[in-house]
Design goal:
The chain has one domain. Helix content is 46%, strand content 0%. The protein contains 3 helices and no strands. The protein is globular and about 40 Å long.
Length: 82
């Protein structure tokens, strides 16, 4: 299972903001060109065991990105998107 890259996060964020806020000119940038150092490899595991043993499922990636965007927009008193 591939890990999520900054490009994936940026693309999902642009997609959510472009659709939800109606701004096709959305641009995403990162403070650092490279991500944080990986302390362990658990991010490479999928959640199939978590789902089968405990019935816990994470929201799909795009939905989670949209939730984070809206949490931040709500704190900044901006209209929610999506």
């Amino acid at each position: 299972m591939p890990s999520t890259s900054k490009v994936d996060v940026g693309d999902a964020s642009i997609e959510c903001l472009s659709e939800g806020a109606g701004d096709p000119g959305v641009q995403i940038s990162f403070q650092h060109e490279r991500g944080a150092k990986v302390q362990n490899a658990t991010y490479l595991l999928d959640n199939s065991r978590l789902l089968s043993e405990f019935a816990i499922a994470y929201r799909p990636f795009r939905e989670r990105v949209l939730q984070i965007i809206n949490d931040i927009r709500q704190e900044a008193r901006l209209p929610l998107v999506g």
